[in-house]
Amino acid sequence: MSKLAILGGEPVVKTPADEIKGLFKWPIVNKAMEDGVLSVLRDGNMSGTDITRKFETEFAKWNGTKYALAHSSGTASLQAAMFGIGLGVGDELICPSVTYWASGLPALSLGATIVFAEIDPKTLCLDPKDFEKRITPRTKAVVVVHYCAYPAPMDEIMAIARKHNIKVIEDVSHAQGGYYKGKMLGTFGDVGAMSLMSGKSFAIGEGGILVTDNDEIYQRAMLWGHYERANSITLPGLAEYKGLPAGGYKYRMHQLSSVVGLEQLKKYDDEIAAIDKAMNYFWDQLADIKGLDSHRPSDKGSTKAGWYACKGLYDSKAFGGLSLSYFIKAIQAEGGQGFAAGCNAALHTHPLFHTFDVYGAGKPTNTANLPAGAEPKQGEGDLPVSETICNSAFSIPWFKHFNKQVIDEQVAAVRKVAENYKELLASDPKEPVVGKFFQTARKN
């Protein structure tokens, strides 16, 4: 009988999944959060803004920015950030191809074109060199995604952006509270935006938030989707339009989320520390296995925050060409929890960006407002790293607490497969990993 469970051996993990599910439960709800939600409900104050404004003030202090503006979703905050920096008809927005769709897709509603750029195979974040290669005279902004909580190389990206007079939007949806070289993410670019939905590290139920030090961006974002903030819009060229949402959107955050957010701010840093201890311990035990990369930053002062959508990187060559899909199935058979092959699919390969006429302009929406002949040619093969990264990136268990025994068992599952991979080579079906354009919130 084979040593590996997938081939008939005994699984190395003995603790039943039901007994360890508490390590993965998220968010961590306490009595203060419950009492706050009940108070808002009993007061009938779900659609006000008083609690939301308090949350914005405290979030801005914690994030180290002058302003914070709460939104109904992360997608709404990203669209507001795009409007805030002046993105409009005929402009180009550079965005990494491997990310959740909301990092770029709202640009279409503003008449802009999304130009996809390559990711770095080690960081899974925007490749600075490819970013610069994609710049044209029409480039207005770049979206920098701190993908799977890994801080993007902001020194290089900001230098390129300032050289070419390009606005920088940070998508911090995966990395609230993370740092790059000692400075909090969301404070490098012109504006940051992020999701705060229940699956994220900083989870408040449903919502998003925009952060910036720029008064004009802040007020434009208010004008875009916050008609009730009329008294806060004072800049010439904006103030005369206050009282109606310029975008026709109603983007305020409901106060059930806001009150949860206020309580989360009180305990989130401690929760980050517990997650960080558990996740680093997990990877430290596997550091000697060649072919597995922990996808965590080595720069001093750079962190993974809450380790949202935590990943590892797999080098098939180090395992005799064994496919990632079979490697992961073998770990799962050993009792591995939360392991999955792949990541988001490369957005530039989706037909929405090539052929769909969303708004009835008579031509594909993504390039409808560009001059003839200026359309970016971004079919399959144009971004090879983005198109193949699903066969290298894999999900790992997202521990919310440190429990040495349980983590050691999960480590043992990986180690057993890694050390006995040769047993799998003959039966490997070589199934390629297909990325997903939409991934539901993970349960673990």
Can you characterise this structure?
The chain has a domain at 31-262: Aspartate Aminotransferase, domain 2 (3-Layer(aba) Sandwich), CATH 3.40.640. The protein is globular. The model is unreliable at 439-444 (pLDDT under 50). It is an alpha/beta fold and 444 residues long. The strands form three sheets. A seven-stranded mixed sheet has the order 1-9-8-5-4-2-3, sandwiched between helices. The chain has a four-stranded antiparallel sheet with strand order 10-11-13-12, covered by helices on one side. Helix 3 runs parallel beside helix 8, helix 8 crosses helix 11 and helix 9 (324-333) packs across helix 11 (404-419). Helices cover 30% and strands 12% of the residues.
Can you summarize this structure?
The chain is an alpha/beta fold and 444 residues long.
Strand content: 5-15%
Main sheet: strand order: 1-9-8-5-4-2-3
The largest pleated sheet is described as:
7 strands, mixed
| Derived structural class | alpha/beta
Percent helix, as a range, is 25-40%
| β-strand number | 13
Q: Report the CATH architecture of the domain at 31-262.
A: 3-Layer(aba) Sandwich
- Put simply, the count of helices is 12
- The third-level CATH topology of the domain at 31-262 is Aspartate Aminotransferase, domain 2
Mean pLDDT: 96
Distance between the termini: 32 Å
Choose one word for the global shape: globular
Which regions are unreliable across 5 or more consecutive residues at pLDDT < 50?
A: 439-444
What is the radius of gyration computed over CA atoms, rounded to a whole number of angstroms? 23 Å
Q: Supply the CATH superfamily name of the domain at 31-262.
A: Type I PLP-dependent aspartate aminotransferase-like (Major domain)
SSE run = HHHEHEEHEHEEEEEHHEEHEHEHH
CATH class of the domain at 31-262: Alpha Beta
